[in-house]
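Bit of a strange request maybe. I'm writing a small parser for structure token strings and I need a real example to test against, not something I typed by hand. Could someone generate the tokens for this chain?
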Amino acid sequence: VQVVESGGGLVHPGGSLRLSCVVSGGTFSDFRMGWYRQPPGKEREFVAGISTSGDNTYYTDSVKGRFIISRDNNKNAAFLQMDSLTPEDTAVYYCTAAGITDFWGQGTQVTVSS
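Reply from user aminoacidic:
Good idea to test on real output. This should exercise your parser:
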């Protein structure tokens, strides 16, 4: 199973980014999908998660109301729409496909700076 993130970059405070995560080599609809991030000098932390069907979503408190996680089981893809970004959102963002085994991507850098 391969997990590949894309969509990171440099954005000004208040801006938006949409991260994408494509999974190949497995049955995508069997995976719970999640996004984690690792800010500079800090530990990796949970950001958002979505159930296999997409009916249930979960967020860490600091991103509620600003980030939206979604998935498209027909495209084997998950997404993280990030709005109202702040410098505190600067981190490497990782996508994970969770099942009997968890699979992780290599990460995509998000930098929020003026």
